[in-house]
Write a structure and sequence with these properties.
The structure holds 2 protein chains of 2 kinds. By secondary structure, chain A is of the alpha/beta class. In chain A, strands 1-2-3-4-5 form a 5-stranded mixed β-sheet, with helices on both faces. Chain A contains 4 helices and 5 strands. The mean pLDDT of chain A is 94. Chain B is of the alpha/beta class. In chain B, a hairpin with a 2-residue loop joins strand 4 and strand 5. At the A-B interface, helix 1, helix 2 and helix 3 of A face helix 4 and helix 6 of B.
């Protein structure tokens, strides 16, 4: 799994993930998210366009990121989810809790509402 | 679609009693196969062979390409990580809480952090409708709840294949349908493959993509639910409609019974 994080402006972090997020690598992604949280961002946007699969550990890492952002008073959104990845959120009954957007623009709008 | 499970010409004998006679079947990714049949028909033996608890006397069982029937114990352990198993009796540890039971495979087979495991356990328990029961002990909850905990544990590692042994047995119809719905969701949304051994007709026809009917160790019918429902095979019709088999229950057993009492076939 590849991860790239950009900070286009103060307080905003854009995360690009690529590959499969599973038991083998979720711990590594979690560490990256911990570093990201240390920067105390206001908004985090995660692009999942190139993520073909997440398992329960991947979902748990996202849930933890969501919890930490909430504690910071920041906001988190995911966008460009493949159907199989969206299904994982749905089956866990969390699709209405997370901000899941169809595009980066929609994600930004969701976070600024 | 790739083949997840393949059984080739499996035979099994217990002493002089033939239990399975040349079983062949294939299950593809994302498919739900229901194995039906009466008591003594061979379905439990077949299930034990499929999960590597019993070796067949002849034949092969490929799970994700690996022959579990001939594998060494350590190889079997590797294959077993890739599938989940829901046992009929739930098989929970009474010394552990509900949450710890679900967490067990995650602690044993992954290096995940405690906090991540805690979140996964909460998600899995919600899937089976048991949010808030993490700290209960198995002996403090009902049989239906135990079965749901066992299911949460069976899917803890997100297996690609799950075996279910009588998932609805002993459950009230509403709880049984909750389990059925979960099997359907896991299959359709996560492409999980399911092999379900059951004799509960409502459940079988609700969840199956394909069914096989085992009788006297042989597959007597195989196909989609509609085809099985309209099968002309007398045993299949008898089994589906719960009719008494006069031949099996009376003549054969009566003959053995009289022989066992009189010690001879000539008792007239």
């Amino acid at each position: 799994m590849k991860i790239k994080i950009e900070s286009p402006e103060q307080g905003i972090e854009k995360v690009y993930l690529e590959g499969e997020l599973d038991f083998q690598n979720s711990q590594q992604i979690r560490l990256e998210f911990t570093r990201l949280i240390d920067k105390k961002p206001i908004r985090v946007l995660v692009n999942l366009e190139h993520v073909s699969y997440i398992d329960s550990s991947g979902l748990a890492v996202f849930i933890e990121l969501f919890q930490k952002m909430k504690r910071l008073g920041g906001r988190l959104a995911f966008f460009n989810l493949q159907e199989r990845v969206r299904n994982v959120f749905e089956i866990a009954k969390l699709e209405s809790i997370f901000h899941l957007a169809g595009s980066e623009q929609e994600a930004l709008t969701l976070l600024t509402q | 679609m790739k083949t997840v499970l393949e059984v080739q010409n499996v035979h099994k004998w217990f002493g002089t009693r033939r239990i399975l006679n040349g079983i062949n079947l294939q299950v593809r990714e994302g498919e739900t196969l229901v194995i039906m049949g009466g008591s003594g028909g061979g379905k439990s033996t077949l299930l034990r062979i499929l999960i590597g608890l019993l070796r067949p006397d002849q034949g092969q069982v490929f799970i994700l390409g690996k022959d579990i029937a001939q594998a060494r114990d350590e190889e079997k352990d590797e294959v077993r990580k890739k599938f989940g198993m829901l046992f009929q009796g739930s098989a929970l540890f009474n010394s552990l809480s509900v949450g710890e039971n679900v967490a067990l495979p995650l602690r044993e087979h992954t290096n995940l952090d405690y906090e991540i495991i805690r979140i996964i356990v909460k998600v899995k328990l919600e899937l089976v409708g048991l949010t808030g029961f993490e700290n209960h002990r198995p002996y403090e909850i009902s049989g239906g709840m135990k079965k749901r905990v066992a299911l949460a544990r069976a899917i803890a590692l997100d297996p690609t294949l799950v075996f279910y042994d009588e998932p609805g047995a002993g459950l009230d119809p509403i709880t049984a349908s909750v389990i059925d719905q979960l099997i359907l969701d896991l299959t359709r949304k996560l492409k999980m493959t399911s092999v379900v051994v059951t004799h509960e007709m409502t459940s079988a026809f609700r969840i199956a993509d394909r069914m096989i009917v085992l009788h006297k160790g042989e597959i007597v019918a195989s196909g989609p639910p509609d085809e099985i429902k309209h099968s002309k095979h007398p045993y299949v019709q008898q089994f589906i409609h719960g009719e008494i088999d006069d031949n099996v229950l009376s003549q054969e057993s009566r003959s053995k019974y009289l022989q066992s009492i009189f010690g001879t076939e000539d008792y007239d």
